[in-house]
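Q: Structure for this?
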Amino acid sequence: MIKDTTELLTILNKNKLIIEEFFEKRDRDIYLNDISSDDNFSDKIEYLLNVGILEMADEPFSLSETLISFLENMLQTNRRIEIRGISEDLDYLEEKISDYKNRDLIDKQKKYLREITRTLSRINRAIVVAFNVISQRVTLEYTTQTNSSEKVIELNRYREKIKELISTEREVDHVVKRELAFFKNSHNRDLLQTFYILAQTLRELRVSLVELQQIVIEYINKSEQKRLFFEKILKLQEMIKNQEIKEKTNIEKLVQQKSYPELFFLKKRKTKTQLSLNILDYYTEDFEERLKKVISNFSIEDKEIKKAPKIDDESLDSKVEYSYDIDKYALQRAFRGMTIDLFTFLDNKNYEREIELEDKLLLYSQMITLFEKEYEYTKSYKIYDRYRVLDIYNKRLK
Amino acid sequence: MSKNLGRKIGKVFEVLVAGKFICESSNDRKMKTLYSICEKNEVYLADYFINLGYILEKGDGYFFFSKDEEPSSDYYDNKIKNFLTMIPLVEFMLVYDNSFGVGAKISIKQMALSLEKKMDLKDRLDKMNRHKSRLSDIEACESIMKEFAKMGYAEVFDEYSRIYKIVDSYAYLENFIDSIREIANEEE
C-alpha cells in the first residue's frame, strides 16, 4: 500500500499513460488486450495491483474507486451528463434577476448581482462540461467498444443527450437575449465578463453541437452497418451449422451407409480378446498348422533354458523335514565277520532307496573314520568309475 | 449370485473386453475384487457374456475373454506372432533368474546390475536390440518388463523402486510357449 503523498505522486507520474487509459475507460471492463498505451503493461499492472491503484486481482481490471472519484472531482469530468441542472440554474437566475429589479437597497442588489454572476458562471461551466463529456465519450465509445449492438445503443443515447443539450442551449440563449438590457446596464464588471463568456460559449456551442450531432449520426450509421454485417455473418454460420446437422441426421442417407454406428455419432468400440486355452487341448492340429505357417519368420533357440523345478504344494505345507540317514553302526555290525572287502559290501548292500556311487564313497569314508581300528588295510584297490578304492577287510581275530 | 451384480458385471466387462486379464495375484485391490466376483459368479457370468459373443475363460488364478466364434486366420496368426515375440523375452528372464514365473518380483535395478556379471544376459539383450535408441541398461531392462506388463503378464509392484510382479496370467503365456516349443521340436 502507498504510505505517503510523495510515493503516490511518483507512482502516478511513472505510470501516467496507463492510468490515463484506465481512467478514460473507467466505465467499462478492461482486459489486458485492450491496453494499448504501454508495452510493458503486464509488469506494471501487477505492480499497480500490489500498491492498490488497480482493483481486481484478475481480468477485467479497473482503477481504484477512490482514485476515480478523486480524479473526477479534480478534473470536473464527472461521467454523469447533468443537463437538467442547467434548467434549474436558469430558473434560479431568472428569480434573482427579478429580485434584483424589485429591490432598491444597494447592499441587497450587490448580493443578488454576486449570485447572478455565480449562477451564470455555473451555467457556463455546466454547458461546457456537458459538451466535453459527450464529445469525449462519443469518440471513446465509437473507437473502443467492440460489441456493435452495444455501440449503437450507446451512441443513440448520446444523440438524445445532444438533442437535450441543444434545447437547453436555446433556452439559455432565450433568457440571455431577454435579459440583455439588464446585463448591459448592471455596470458590474464581473457580471459583464461572465455574461460575455457565456455568450461566447453559446455561440461556439451552437456550431459544435450541430457538428457533434452529425458525427454521432455518422457513427451510428457506420456501427449499424457493421452490426448488420456481423448479424448476417452469424446468421450464415448458424445456417451452415443447421445444414450440417441436417446432413448428418439424414436417416435415409445414413441407413444406406455401411458404417451404421455413425447414426449415433459414436465411434465403433475396439474390443480385444485372447486366444482360447481350448485351442491347446482340443484344437491342437489347427494350432500346429497355423504355427508352422507363422514360425518360419521367427527363430527359436534349440537349447531350451531350464526352469527351476517347481516345489509341490505338499512339501510347502509339510511341517516335518525328512532326511535319509544310514545307521553306520548297524552296517558295521553286519560287516563284522564278513570276508569281503568293505566297499564291495557297501556297494552290494540293499538300501531303502537308491544310492549314488558318490554317496557310497562318502559312506565308505565315514565307516573308516568311525571304525578305523577294526579294519585291516591292504595295498590292493579296485576301480569304480574314476575312483580307486582301497580294499579294506575286517581284522582277523587272533 | 452377489448383490448389485449388474453394476459389477459392467466393470468386469470393461476390463475383459479391453483384452486384459483379471488376476487373483494382482496388487490392484479393484482387480482382486473383480476376480472374486468372477470366481463367485463364474457360471452366471459365462452365460451372460456368451450372449454378447465372448467366452469367459478361467485359468489358474486368472480370467479372460476369448471369442465365441471361429477365429479368423489373421487373428490366429497375430496371436501366435505375439507369443513368438514373447519367447526371447521369457528366455532372457529365465537366464536372469531360472525361477522366473508367477509370483516372481523383478527388480529392474538388480536386473541391470546382473548384466555386468552375466555376459550371456548382456549378449541376449544386445541381440534383442534393446539397446536401440541409446537406452541405458536400466531402461533396456525396464523395456522388457514393460512388454510383459503391456501384455498383461506383469504389473508394477513398486513404482519408486522399479519392481515388477509377475501375475497369474503369465501361466497363460507359459502354456502357449510350451506348446509352441513342443511343436517346433517335433518338426525338427
